[in-house]
Amino acid sequence: MNERGESAADDQTATDHYGDTGRTVFGSHGEVSKNDPRVVAHAEVDAANAAVAVAMAGGGLPAEVNAMLVSVQNDLFDLMADLLVPYPSNLAVDARIIPEHAERLERAIEHFRQEADDLSGMLLPGGTLSAALLYQARTAVRRAERTVWAALDEHGDVVNRETGRYLNRLSGLLFVMGRAANAEHGDVMWVPESSVLGVLEDRPDTD
Q1: Tell me, what's the pLDDT at 9?
Q2: How many Å apart are CA 79 and CA 97, to the nearest integer?
Q3: Where are the beta strands (DSSP E) in the chain?
Q4: Which pTM was predicted?
Q5: CA-to-CA distance for 3 and 98, rounded, in angstroms?
């Protein structure tokens, strides 16, 4: 879904040169700059959705996780549709993000965290391929979340705050899923200053 609310099949931007001036028609918000925070947020949510797709395509995820992520992808399209129409508004809208979207993710977090090891400690993104891709998707979601809050900071009267709340919960879900994907392999934990520990131990005490 592009910023005009068109599907890939309807998207003519590849041939009609619309937007070559740095302006675009952003859904029901009218013509705005392509640097408008609402347009940026819409694009970053699109990128986050693609990152979730890559995590699924990488393989190795249980069917239950894949099914959840498919529903998340649908939610992210709901979120993109929400951003395209001022909130609140009497205008026609394909979907709105409501509190129940985030509440569903909260239940999923509690479910999947039971499959993860101890969630304490700081870890490095990695381990299995599945976990690494889920961690990467999480960073894309966190970036999208920040752009949504930026849009709310500037256009809070026309952007639905539930969109930011949903993305915040989604980053938490992807983190828990990544930990669960490393349950057998084990996470790679952060050891502060590990690359220079020997140097620090040999350094003479100057006190």
Answers
A1: 42
A2: 6
A3: 23-25, 31-33, 123-124, 188-189
A4: 0.86
A5: 21
